[in-house]
Every structure is written in structure tokens, then in C-alpha cells.
Amino acid sequence: MKGTSRLRQLAPLGMIAIALLTLAACGESYPNTTFDPHSELGRAIDAIWDRLLLLGTIVFVLVEIALLYVVFRYRHRPGDTSKPPQTHGNAFLEILWTIIPAVILLFIAVPTVSTIFKTQAKAVAGALEIQVIGHQWWWEFRYPEYNIVTANEIYIPTGRTVNFKMTSQDVIHSFWIPQLAGKRDVIANRTNYIWFTPDSSLGASVWNGFCTEYCGASHANMRFRVFTVKPDQFASWVAGQQRPAAFGAQPNAPPPMLMPFPGAKSDRAAPAPPANPAAAATTGAAAASLASAGPAYTFPQNQPEFDYARPHTPVPAGLKFTPGLTGNAARGQQVFSSSACIGCHTVTGNPMSMGVTGPNLTHFGSRATIGAGLFPNTPAYLALWIKNARAMKPGILMPTLGKNEYDPQLKQAVTTGGLDDQQIADIVAYLTSLK
Length: 435
Ligand code: CUA
Description:
- By secondary structure, the protein is of the alpha+beta class.
- Helices cover 35% and strands 17% of the residues.
- The protein contains nine helices and 16 strands.
- The strands form five sheets. A five-stranded mixed sheet has the order 3-2-1-5-8. The chain has a five-stranded mixed sheet with strand order 4-10-9-6-7.
- A hairpin with a 2-residue loop joins strand 1 and strand 2.
- The longest helix has 34 residues, at 40-73.
- The protein starts with a helix and ends with a helix.
- 35% of the residues are buried.
- Residues 249-256 and 263-293 have low confidence and may be disordered.
- The structure holds dinuclear copper ion.
- Dinuclear copper ion is lined by residues 134, 137, 173, 211, 213-215, 219, 222.
- Dinuclear copper ion (CUA) is lined by residues 134, 137, 173, 211, 213-215, 219, 222.
């Protein structure tokens, strides 16, 4: 009995907590909320949710009123041994409470089923097709119309219907962009589709995407970014992506880019906001040195209003990098092209690099994140990633490459064939130059 009374005392607190959580989830300042949809599919799902919530609330209130009435009206009174009127076998009542739920279900089923049919229909002609291939634990994206292969980041133009054609390389994943649309399972040996039109009223924006079907050790680390951009920005991005890698495309280019290397101190810090003059200078210098490659649009990911899309994953304790090293992109290309990297990664324009097990790195330098949305794509994070990716993301195929680094999957240190920090800094300079 003691337990019951304690439960009763805690009940109001629980109700307040639930109410606060519900209110918090409604806020539009939450970048991953589904209550602020920006496509017709997102709004259709949201409308069903609103209707279900309304109907559910009405049913809940009516049932609670009836319950409280009966509890109060027929409560036990001292000395009263009479029974309340019995309704067992009352045909009228039984028909009534069979029909009422059936009618309620009709109000739920009609809009739900019609929306399901609508979203399962074929996408409109002229839709932009993007092939989605789920991998443990990253996303491959292909634009057959433009002959583009990329990973973990998608650009889509506002106002044009995009039709995602999805399959998996291994286990079941699920594709979800909470503020745009979703979810849809990504399954091997089966093609699923999801299509929607990002609102043409949108400015250039970034959206967080997630794998939302448990798929193994790094399921939570299988993220992606969607950039909705204006049609002219999209055309410019496409033109840039269609070129071979900027670095390899320029055999007689000016002297190889030297990449000043941030100190290890900043390795574990949160991504530096653009207000930090040092960070802005590095980004600015990199951008300026690439202007000669032709101005292809990339999303301005460093703007503070898009901070919600910047990953803040901590770096494992003990993973360090020699501060003050300067990478050499030309040397980096040689190291990259003669090491294990080329067995898994393609860099179009580098004939040595044709692997397909890992993400295509042709325009790696233009991406905002690494590790499937897990870390910002900055030299400091990239160096640690190359040095010991398995320590930064559990279970992955990308091997631990740093000399003497401990490989958590092989449970031993890399003794032969590992890369030293200078070699890694060179590879970082090379990859970062691939815009
Ligand atoms: Cu892929 Cu969870």
C-alpha cells in the first residue's frame, strides 16, 4: 500500500514532466523536429499526426469524463449494499459501443490510407532521381542524370521533386530527414522509393539526416546532410561535381598546396565558429587557392545559423596528433596512391584510386563532414580520422592506419606499414584540396 501512495504522490510530477516534454518537442527552434515540415510529403504526414492527436484527445477526454462520473456516482457509501444498475446483455449499448469506435477508425483510416497511396505512387515525370545505397555505416548517393557519385551529403534544388531510389549493400537501414520527409526502409535486394518536393520558398538550407533502423555497432553514427539550394546554385554544384578531382585535373598546376596544420590542442575542441579569426583565415586561404579551379557552388556551412548541422562528436581520449606539421598535397597524393586508401576509395582523376568499398572521395574537400556526418571536415579531425578511424567510430571497415596506433578491432597496435604523422598530414593536404 505504501508503494501505491508514493505512486499517487509522484503522479502529478510525472504529468508535468510529460507536458513539458510535449511542449518542448513543439518548438520550431529544434532543428530535427518533424512538426515544422518543408515538403508536401512532410506536411501530409504532419496533417495525419494533427488529426490523430485531435481525435485521440477527444476520445481521451470523453472516456475520462465517463470514468470519473461512474467512479463518483457509484462510489461505496457506508451502509449501502445495493448494486448499481446492471447493463450486461443490453443490445442497444453493445451495438452503440461497437459502432462508435468503427466510426472513429473510419476518420483515421481514410486520410491515412489515401496518403499512403499518394506517397507510394510513382513520382512525377521530370523528378530528380537520386540513388541511395545504404552501407554499414555510411550513405552512397548517385545522381544518374548527372553522372555524379558522392557520399553522406546530398544537394537538392528547391521546388523540384526529388525521387530517392533506395537499396542496401548489406543490412536494413532506414532513410529519414525529419524536417523534409521520411522514413523509408533501405533494404538489400529490394528497391524502395520516397519522393517529395522541397518548398520553393526555402532559402539555401541544411537538414540533418539519419539512419533510423538499428543496423549495428555504428547505427547512431550513420548520418547524412541534405542541402536544399536554389536551382542556379544546384546547377553550379552539379557542374563542379562533374569535373574530375580538382587536384588531379591540373597536372601542370601551380606548386602543390601547403596546408598549415592546426595544433593538437584544437583537436578535441568543438568546431571553431567562423567568429574565430584563425579558423576563418585557414578556410579563406584554402578557398582562395582553389578559385583557379573554377567557382562551383558549395553550401556556406560555416555560417552560425547552420550550427545545428555541425557535428560535435567528441574525439576519443588519448588520440593525438603532432602539432605544427605542414602537409604537402603533392606528396600526399603519392602516399595516398601507394597505400591501402586506393583499395577502397575512388578519386576520379587519380587513375590509381578506383576502390568502391568506401565512399567516393573525388570532391572530398567540398564536403562539410567526415565519417558519415560524425565530425566536421577540418584538417585536425581528418588527420585523427586517418590515424585511427576505428577508435573514432566503432566497428567500421576503414582500418587504423597510424603507426603504433592501437586497432580496437584487431586488438593490436599497427606495427608494420603504418603511416607517420607527416605522411598523414600530407594525405590531409591532398584530400582537402579535392574540391
Ligand atoms: Cu544504418 Cu542504422
